Amino acid sequence: MNQLDALKQFTTVVADTGDFLQLVQFRPQDATTNPSLILKAVQKPEYAPLLKDTVAKWQGRAMDEVIDRLLVRFGCEILTHVPGRVSTEVDARLSFDTSATVTRAERIIELYQAEGIHIDRVLIKIAATWEGIQAAAQLERKGIHTNLTLLFSFAQAVACGQAKVQLISPFVGRIYDWYKKQAGASWDEAARAGANDPGVQSVTQIYNHYKRFGIATEVMGASFRNVGQITALAGCDLLTIAPELLAQLAASDAPLQRALDAEAAKDMDLPAVNYDEAGFRFALNEDAMATEKLAEGIRAFAVDAVKLEKLILAA
Q: Active site residue: 40, 52, 125, 181, which one?
């Protein structure tokens, strides 16, 4: 059994790509997209007709609507290749506007439903700002399921659990990147690998907290830099993995053991934690890594949204 098949025994494997033609060989359950992945996909020759067709069909409509229709078009294609769910992201430029995020999410769901896609097959991705988490809480109450992304801190995870969001995506690789950059020449790769990786430690803490306190929100580790980070989180509810790393897992037959265990977490002596808005904002402010990476992530997704708009105008 290769490592990918072994991992699937413990964890739902999700493909982290907008390139739906790559999906088939890895047989993931779900797929996730974001503005950067869609931007990358539409620049490939094989997807140029899809972009042109969508733009031609909805020419004259507002840019935000054309983008949502393009995202949904990709999502529908992806859903023909996976049996589960696809995550589609709300424009990152709305990350601090609760009502606008709710409105945009509802439109994305309506577009999917118009294509015959059941609401339960779509997760709306929203940045895990305070405003985004409140938008997700409203959407969940309406039966629209959410995936809170750009999640770097325990405080964000706690607030998402309180909001009863469907799923969170803690970013393992970006946490690792920050600590490695901070350490500079003193970084010891071997000593900070596997269970000692700061990104792995963050997801492990969140997972154990959720399982200990019976929080139903699913934990999906994301943004991996190497296979070691993935295998150190075997047992996590879900892991969303880029095609390159899925290929490495499929090519390896090294043994793989469960690393996270929900039953073991239930017996851990952990403190209960809750946040109101002021407490959340202060806790996030106290976490320099999470504050910086959240802001950086929103900026990067916003830049790619603008690039996507320019491609649409040129199509």
A: 125
Residue 110, pLDDT score: 98
How many CB atoms are closer than 10 A to CB 245? 18
Q: What is the DSSP letter of 33?
A: -
**Closest Cα partner for 298 from 49, 2, 89?**
89
Q: Is the pTM of this model over 0.70?
A: yes
To the nearest whole percent, how much of the chain has pLDDT over 70? 100
> Which one-letter DSSP state was computed for residue 10?
T
CA dist 100 and 212 (Å) reads: 34
Q: Residue 118 carries which side chain, given as an amino acid letter?
A: H
Specify the pLDDT at position 236.
Answer: 98
Contacts of 222 (CB under 8 A, 6+ apart): 16, 32, 149, 169, 170, 171, 172, 173, 239, 240
* Nearest-angstrom CA–CA distance, 172 and 286: 19
Q: For residue 82, which of 15, 149, 168, 19 has the smallest C-alpha distance?
A: 15
CB atoms within 10 A of CB 191: 8
Structure tokens given for 77: 């294609």
**Rounded Cα distance, 75 and 277, in Å:** 33
pLDDT attached to residue 123: 98
Residue stretches of the chain with pLDDT short of 70: none
CB 244: neighbour CB atoms within 10 A? 11
Active site residue 125: yes
DSSP per residue, 95-120: TT-HHHHHHHHHHHHHHHHHTT--GG
Any residues with CB less than 8 A from the CB of 264 and at least 6 apart, and which?
none
The sign of the torsion formed by the CA atoms of 140, 222, 113, 66 equals positive
pLDDT number for residue 249: 98
Q: In whole angstroms, give the CA distance from residue 305 to residue 315.
A: 15
Q: Which two tokens stand for residue 271?
A: 């403190």
